[in-house]
């Protein structure tokens, strides 16, 4: 498809386990963003990539969270030793050029993460 | 950080025009104003973006006064399918500083028959 693709769409795991969330941005988009959205809440910014570099990691809530992007395309968000408060929808977005102020973001439909 | 303030919820009826205002008192010179729409279980979808004055596309209009401290999203003749949460986002997509991209809590629009 032509849009941002995220997998899995749903993930249920036990507390303490590690999880990996994947994002395939729109082809050619150099900027990629991860957000977290708790039930009924707004979006919380986590991290931003320009190419494979992450100039802004200020939103990562703890050192259990990490993200990488390879080949300027696919990105993986990893949460280690998951906690119940990590339960949320994790959204990925991409934009054509993160260095341009007026490039809108295109979002995937998210991964719904549930920690038991 | 360009914080935004929006009404938590609004109600309307089919066929009416809906105006949602977002306050952003500390908007910076290089900030754009972007509105997104989000349906349940979906990611936000871009609606419209502007810098100043008025912008119109096939789905909405965006009005921005000269001081840029607020903006108003106008949805003409809403239908039931416009029931969604609407977010106002202010900022450059890329900031060389450590400022994060922050969406507000959004405005939940409920359209009634």
**What kind of assembly state do the chains in view correspond to?**
heterodimer
- The succession of helices and strands of chain B, N to C, reads EEEEEEEEE
Largest sheet strand order of chain B: 1-9-8-3-4
Shape of chain A: globular
The H/E string of chain A reads EEEEEEEEEEE
How many strands, which pairing sense, and closed or not: the largest β-sheet of chain B? 5 strands, mixed
Helix content of chain A: under 10%
Cα(first) to Cα(last) distance of chain B is 39 Å
Shape type of chain B: globular
Mean pLDDT of chain A: 91
Keywords:
heterodimer, A: 116 residues, 7-stranded mixed beta sheet, 4-stranded antiparallel beta sheet, B: 113 residues, mainly beta, 5-stranded mixed beta sheet, globular
Q: Summary?
A:
The complex is a heterodimer of chains A (116) and B (113). Chain A is an all-beta fold and 116 residues long.
Account of the protein in words:
- The complex is a heterodimer of chains A (116) and B (113).
- The model of chain A has no long low-confidence stretch (mean pLDDT 91).
- Chain A contains no helices and 11 strands.
- In chain A, strands 2, 4, 5, 6, 9, 10 and 11 form a 7-stranded mixed beta sheet that branches.
- The N and C termini of chain A lie far apart (32 Å).
- With 116 residues, chain A is mostly beta strands.
- The relative contact order of chain A is 0.33.
- With 113 residues, chain B is mainly beta.
- Chain B has no helices and 9 strands.
- Chain B has strands at 9-13, 18-23, 32-38, 45-50, 53-56, 61-64, 70-75, 84-91, 107-112.
- In chain B, β6 (61-64) and β7 form a beta hairpin.
- The radius of gyration of chain B is 14 Å and the shape is globular.
- The termini of chain B are far apart.
- The chains are: A mainly beta (116), B mainly beta (113).
């Amino acid at each position: 498809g032509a849009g941002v693709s995220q997998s899995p769409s749903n993930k249920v795991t036990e507390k303490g386990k590690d999880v990996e969330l994947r994002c395939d941005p729109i082809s050619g988009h150099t900027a990629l963003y991860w957000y977290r959205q708790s039930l009924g809440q707004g979006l919380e910014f986590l991290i931003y990539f320009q190419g494979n570099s992450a100039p802004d990691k200020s939103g990562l809530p703890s050192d259990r969270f990490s993200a990488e992007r390879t080949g300027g395309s696919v990105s993986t968000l990893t949460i280690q030793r998951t906690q119940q408060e990590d339960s949320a929808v994790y959204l990925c977005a991409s934009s054509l050029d993160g260095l341009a102020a007026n490039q809108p973001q295109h979002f995937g439909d998210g991964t719904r993460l549930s920690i038991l | 950080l360009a914080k935004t303030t929006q009404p938590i919820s609004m109600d309307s009826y089919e066929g009416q025009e809906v105006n949602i205002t977002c306050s952003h008192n500390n908007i910076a010179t290089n900030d754009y104003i972007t509105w997104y729409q989000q349906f349940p279980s979906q990611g936000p979808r871009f609606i419209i973006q502007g810098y100043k004055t008025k912008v119109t596309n096939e789905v909405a209009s965006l009005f921005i006064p000269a001081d840029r401290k607020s903006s108003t999203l106008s949805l003409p003749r809403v239908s039931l399918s416009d029931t969604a949460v609407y977010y106002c986002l202010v900022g450059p997509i890329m900031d060389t500083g450590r400022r994060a991209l922050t969406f507000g809590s959004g405005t939940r629009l409920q359209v009634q028959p």
